[in-house]
Amino acid sequence: MSKGHDRHLHLGLWLTFLDAAEWRDPASRAEELNSLQPYVEVAEIGERAKLDALIRGDGLGLPLPDPEQAFAGSLEILTLLAALAARTERIGLIGTASTTFTEPYNLARTLATLDHLSNGRVGWNIVTSIAGEEQFGYDEIPGHEERYERADEFIEVVSKLWASWEPDAVLVDRENGVFFDPDKINTIDHHGKHFRVAGPLNIARPPQGRPVFVQAGDSEKGRDFAARHAEIVFTAQNDIGKAQAFYRDVKRRVERQGRDAARVSILPGLVVTIGGSEAEAQELHDRFLARIDYERTRRNLESLLGGVDLSDIDLDERVPEERLPEAGALTRQPGRAQIFIDLAKEKGATLRRLLQALGTAHGHGRVFGTPEQVADHIQRWAGARAADGFAVSPAQGLAGARLFADEVVPILQDRGLFRREYTGGTLRDHLGLPPVP
Amino acid sequence: MSKGHDRHLHLGLWLTFLDAAEWRDPASRAEELNSLQPYVEVAEIGERAKLDALIRGDGLGLPLPDPEQAFAGSLEILTLLAALAARTERIGLIGTASTTFTEPYNLARTLATLDHLSNGRVGWNIVTSIAGEEQFGYDEIPGHEERYERADEFIEVVSKLWASWEPDAVLVDRENGVFFDPDKINTIDHHGKHFRVAGPLNIARPPQGRPVFVQAGDSEKGRDFAARHAEIVFTAQNDIGKAQAFYRDVKRRVERQGRDAARVSILPGLVVTIGGSEAEAQELHDRFLARIDYERTRRNLESLLGGVDLSDIDLDERVPEERLPEAGALTRQPGRAQIFIDLAKEKGATLRRLLQALGTAHGHGRVFGTPEQVADHIQRWAGARAADGFAVSPAQGLAGARLFADEVVPILQDRGLFRREYTGGTLRDHLGLPPVP
């Protein structure tokens, strides 16, 4: 990867087709929320634009049964990606799965199968989960520390399983009747604190060796975990200075692990609103803001901040500092909480601004403007080493994905910032990553 | 379902494209064992023939690392079916998953997603697993009794989760901004011996209400379990008289549960070899027998029979009765073991014949002949109430699937025994099952 403005970006596309409130539009396809077809259309849009990957989170609970929240129900993402693997050829497929609430042998099989079926296009967004314990017999979710400890061992186990078939174990020697070489398939005999797994995996080595490791590590523990394992780091950043500091910090941590920092791509989320003119973009953005349900969003913010009560604060007042928790003391999403604490403390944001930041983009960056302006924003952040690219979330749903692919990406291509064609077949190829040892 | 010979059969197609030894054929596609393409071809063949479903087992271990065994490595089936859901329109998709080594909340999500993405075409082959404990931290596999007890509770939990969204919970009321009705999404608050699960599921009710329940219940416990839950019963039968007795017994058990026996389809496996003439079929069958590795198959039989030593018995001798175990005392697959014990005791089968039954069809029925003869066999068993149809496993791989679809199915259609067109969209429709209450 070369330096400065001309280096190549990596772009992921959030795999959704309905903006959170967009469903009320008469033309929305809200009825198809659980159907394959609209996801296939997003996937095709992303592939046409030669994007690196489709990405999608996943949740285990049904938070706040809220009648306006179309997304409370969410298809299991690895299953959805398997369907999309069968309808795409080149684009990467990044899905989320929990190390806290799954078994390593099962998840290793699912991801290996996905990597085989997609010819090596799978990425695994590794999460330790911030919810869901009540579905798995826990009284409360294991602590931050314990979750990350289990996650480290989980990754050790699945990595050993994926490596349990050596690359040349499959022979298909018809003449001698030898399908595979049993000497090249090894047990792993893992005996750890959290897992005992004998191995080998019962699936041949995946095409990429293993899925690309993706992580969203906002907290201290999360950053260290990302530094040890991640090849893509997702992050929520809405301030270029803070994003630069995060970027420097993570790359430094990666280097301290003896890894090549250039091979870890930092991709902040970016909620994009595209208009034909500046005025149209402004109008779309205003409409986006107008859709926020401040009452509901305040409850979400209170929950993110560890249960603080903000109900007596006027929307146009600042949140008193003594109401704000120490992010480090929070069990769930301390990094994400920090963004809002910073906004309130350092930027003097009113409650309304906090709720806008949460309600429109969950703390991620936002940009609205003409295709040119959106491209400028992307180029500026990348040039300033605040990002290696973005995980783009179109605020206008399927139409927004189309606008990004057809209007913004060509500008980035013309500026030499983004590929015009895929040069390889696997997600590792798209990211310029070397083979797994 | 009408009575006698003219009733409609249900036919599943084993989702494989390589016969166990066929891979040595120069024209085989053994190199594609882990690629999507050949499975798509099998799926298209099955759908063209209007078969009820594709079916496939799954295993968690890598038994007997044996260099001739192409199938030791096996893709995770639910992931494979998700990919096939995206490439097919009507055929049912039946996959295997374990109640012993998965969590109900996770499996409920995967199967609900599959049912959504396939528009209601999913069946779940419920297994309690006979291997794999060493991958999940167990010293030994939980006993037969405990596995079935857990399986009963597992089914209770996942059924509650699938029912946790009432059918009319999703409103998509644009005018009033109400996506779903929170009063119609219910927690399940399950507190059982094996599981504590709060619910609700975070995915809307699947199109079929829940997947079609499929079970292979050979043992006493298995038959009772099937009687309580199954809508399709897979079984290994290689004798029409025993198959009739099994059929009567299972249907009676179903009725004793207060269920309609006509709505439970009993489908024995059937390994099919099709020739253009009787002589050609015989020759193909002989070639099939000649491929058996008697040494390896004997080890498999010894293991199936609970570790008995048969190494000193000549292939053309009978197995002494005192060497044969009581099937009921076996932890793994007592029902399958019974088939071989019966063959040895009642039919006086030589060791060679036992190994042929195991090595070619794992105890399932076998038929070889012209398309007409294969159709006759199917009609005869169905007419004699030994089966409601078959799970067909073509011994000639992809070519065999094509022969079955193009040569045998039309005969069954001409005889009025099998549909010429799908009349519904879901697997429940194909099976003539009423909606889930």
UniProtKB/TrEMBL annotation, chains A, B:
<keyword id="KW-0285">Flavoprotein</keyword>
<comment type="similarity">
    <text>Belongs to the NtaA/SnaA/DszA monooxygenase family.</text>
</comment>
<protein>
    <submittedName>
        <fullName>NtaA/DmoA family FMN-dependent monooxygenase</fullName>
        <ecNumber>1.14.-.-</ecNumber>
    </submittedName>
</protein>
<feature type="domain" description="Luciferase-like">
    <location>
        <begin position="30"/>
        <end position="384"/>
    </location>
</feature>
<dbReference type="Pfam" id="PF00296">
    <property type="entry name" value="Bac_luciferase"/>
</dbReference>
<keyword id="KW-0288">FMN</keyword>
<dbReference type="InterPro" id="IPR016215">
    <property type="entry name" value="NTA_MOA"/>
</dbReference>
<dbReference type="InterPro" id="IPR011251">
    <property type="entry name" value="Luciferase-like_dom"/>
</dbReference>
<dbReference type="InterPro" id="IPR051260">
    <property type="entry name" value="Diverse_substr_monoxygenases"/>
</dbReference>
<dbReference type="GO" id="GO:0004497">
    <property type="term" value="F:monooxygenase activity"/>
</dbReference>
<keyword id="KW-0560">Oxidoreductase</keyword>
<dbReference type="InterPro" id="IPR036661">
    <property type="entry name" value="Luciferase-like_sf"/>
</dbReference>
<keyword id="KW-0503">Monooxygenase</keyword>
